Amino acid sequence: MADETRNHLDGRAHVVVQSGRIEQLHQHIGGGPEAETPAPFQVPPPRHRFANRVAEQERIRRAVEDHAPQAGPLVALLTGIGGVGKTALGFHVARHLADRYPDGVLHVDLDDHRREGTVELAEAVGEMLAGLKVEKEWRERSFAARVKQLWTLTRDKQLVVVIDNARFGSEVTPLLPASDRSLALVTSQGALYDLDVAAVEVPLGPLPAPDAVELLRHLVDDPRLAAEPEALADLVEGCAGLPAALLVAGHWVRKYRRRPLSRLVGELTAELREKGLPMVEAVWDAAYEGLDGEAARLYRLLPLLPAPVIDEEPAAALLGRGYDEAADLLEELERAGLLDEGVGGWRMHDLLRGHAQRQLGQADPAGAERDRALAALIRWYRRQAARADRTAAGPRMTFAAQPDPAGDGPADLLFEDKAHALRWLERHRAALFGCVRLAFDAGWYEDAWGLCEPLWTHYLDHPHLGEVLAAFRTGVEAADRTEFLPAMVRMRCQLARPLWEAGQHEEAARQLGQAVHAAQALGTTFEEDRLRASALEFQGLLKAETGDLAGAVADFTASREIHARIGNAYGVLLLTYQEGKVALRRGESQEAIGLLERAHAAAVEQGRERMAARTGFELGRALRAAGRPQEADALVAAALESARRRGSATDEVRALRESAELADALGEAERAEEYRAEAGRIVALRGGLPAPHTS
């Protein structure tokens, strides 16, 4: 590289860090004065003029002015029934106060992370960290560590945080910034009695009639509103002052521009008398009945999608139509006011979701339409996830037979590369994890565990522990229901790793013990032998994690011998590498050197750059431990170069820190400090927490 000087002294490769390297680093990762990144601003632009809420805004403004230093962040709790406009007020206040909080505006919707009523708080904190520009590889993995990381990064910040759809105070507290110069705007349908910080309560009632009229006039530029004030008043009264209902009413009025407003309202009133429905429900019924057949069917089916954000792809799968047609129908629903193009994509308000579910129950009392659509959705997700998995990870061990495409359904997706495939899996993860549960509840057990298989690759890149544990536990139960032995073994292996990463070592050991025992009954095909070896490898990894190094070596050796017997060269390489790492941990540096030399040579021979770098790095550590730092220096320098070439900042930091240890061993204190300083800058600029100083 142009900004690095490589000197070869006594056969050793040195990387001398110069000021040009640091400047390039700042520019590359968007930090420092040379390349200031903009402050986050995560609330959407206003879609129409904001109406009223003057008193509520003034209450928040006064609280901001009066907030005492050293009292923690200011928390304003916006409460009220669904559809009353809490989120709209939170967004409006955040926009107008943004200048007072120069470090940015963050938003997290807890319903995006709510699974069966419980929020995955580690994921919600992770979303906050992402908003603070912390890339996923630098986010701590456990919930407690992520909260501490958030505190560290926000202790001197002036932020606005909008926390939507809280149900309990315990869901809010971990998301609060540490600085007393920050503001948190929390929306909830009721008071949060377990919120353990002081909060300014801002209750929201329905809009008064004049303000509701004003909002409707902003939504609909129509002379009928002025010409027929009595009909307008009746419509507004029927919407009960709920902005969510007024929005649908506005779209409905705009659709029928030639009819007198009094006639439209009269039709709703007649329906109200006939069916005994609230006016709000009658407004939604009228909007629904104005849809064409396929748009109405899509509206009814959308609540089946177990995700807060709606895309045209799963919509097409639900309908059995093409993507373009689904996109057109979603736009029709948006024009009718039954969908909102919100943060991240199309969204359906909870009130409308309930209305759509009721419409499905009326149109499909036997559930046949629901079951067909749900089966099509789950099997479409299975095929696409499997394709994404193959693109991201290449051919690997799987056992589920993929369902055939539906003849009239949407075409399968094409993924350009690994990054595209992983982005798709992450975007659709809520639906993918949700479909595992839906398939199990419907008794489609192969679909449930079959969908877990491709989620393994996604988990390795995006470790959402709470969601993964729930899905993989369901996968284990589904595999047991099918009594398909390879699936029973594979699902337990997949479950074990997130278990031990969540600190649940005993359950992980129990699952792996069952997997290894069941694997003895597998057949003798290549894939079954490979699965048997894999179960032993997982068990060895857990033993290494919990300090049983002798047991880990025994499992790794047994696994390697199976791979050698079936001619799986990569398996032999991987298990030799694992044995070498354990030998190094046990202080057996000479044995570690022998194992890691074999693994490194195999990785180079097989053309596996990342494994060559990893094995070379560990071999360098073993050589340093054996008192041979001169031989180690070139290997660690090569690992550093590989990390930079691959763009892996975490591997780069590990190599820089090991380079510092080597420099210390060689008596080059100045060079060691240069390496540590560069590692520290990378960590700081990417939002990671610094490692303890080891010199």
Automatic annotation (TrEMBL):
Q: Report the Gene3D superfamilies cross-referenced here.
A: P-loop containing nucleotide triphosphate hydrolases, Tetratricopeptide repeat domain
Which positions are tagged coiled coil? none
Q: Which SUPFAM superfamilies match?
A: P-loop containing nucleoside triphosphate hydrolases (SSF52540), TPR-like (SSF48452)
Q: Which PANTHER family match?
A: HTH-TYPE TRANSCRIPTIONAL REGULATOR RV0890C-RELATED (PTHR47691:SF3), REGULATOR-RELATED (PTHR47691)
Can you name this protein?
Answer: NB-ARC domain-containing protein
Organism (species): Streptomyces koyangensis
Taxonomic lineage from the root: Bacteria, Bacillati, Actinomycetota, Actinomycetes, Kitasatosporales
